[in-house]
Design a protein that fits this description.
189 residues; alpha/beta; Alpha/beta knot; 7-stranded parallel beta sheet; 7 helices; 7 strands; 41% helix; 17% strand; globular
Length: 189
């Protein structure tokens, strides 16, 4: 048990609350699950889920239990999710094939929320209006787009790396927040 608690302490120390993924109406349960798993693996603490048109149902065989270690905040309306992010000082950027910024240009100097939309319809225009800007994953081949979970994985990797470099440390939770999260994780074991 000591090694398990030591591992939990190390994981908690590397959690980032200042980078979040926002999933808007993602319909394929495998895609949602893959995004959750990626977030957990990258140390992202929270995932915002907007379920305006599509219910949130991650595929457990893909998520591999990641939903136990990532806080999932669910919203019926996208505007409420974006208002909550803005109130916390997040810069909100939406994934788009024609995004203004490249993922390599994502700055780690401020809290960042990356928004990923529905596999077919993308992010609704009324929600795009709540974003500070857009970003893209550069495409060098003939394929015109990536699967949403792949795009999220690439983007979130760049965002967490930039944030950790700007912070000069692996995580950004206060000691009190780390203790609370550790207790939360122990209770889930």
């Amino acid at each position: 048990m000591a090694t398990r608690t030591e591992r939990l302490r190390k994981v908690v120390a590397t959690r980032l609350k200042s980078v979040v993924a926002v999933c808007v109406n993602i319909q394929n349960p495998h895609n949602v699950a893959a995004i959750l798993r990626t977030c957990e693996a990258l140390g992202i603490l929270e995932v915002y889920v907007v379920e305006e048109d599509v219910p949130f149902r991650p595929a457990p065989q893909v998520s591999q239990g990641a939903e136990r270690w990532v806080r999932i905040l669910r919203f019926r309306r996208g505007e409420a999710a974006f208002a909550a992010l803005r109130a916390q000082g997040f810069r909100i950027l939406a994934a788009s094939p024609t995004g203004t910024l490249s993922v390599e240009e994502l700055a780690g100097t401020e809290p960042l929320a990356l928004v990923f939309g529905n596999e077919v319809a993308g992010i609704p225009p009324e929600l795009l209006a709540h974003c500070h800007g857009t970003f893209r994953v550069p495409m060098w081949g003939l394929t015109e787009s990536l699967n949403v979970s792949v795009a999220a994985g690439i983007s979130l990797y760049f965002a967490t790396r930039a944030r950790r470099q700007a912070l000069g440390q692996a995580g950004d939770l206060t000691p009190a927040e780390q203790d609370a999260l550790f207790a939360e994780y122990i209770a889930r074991l």
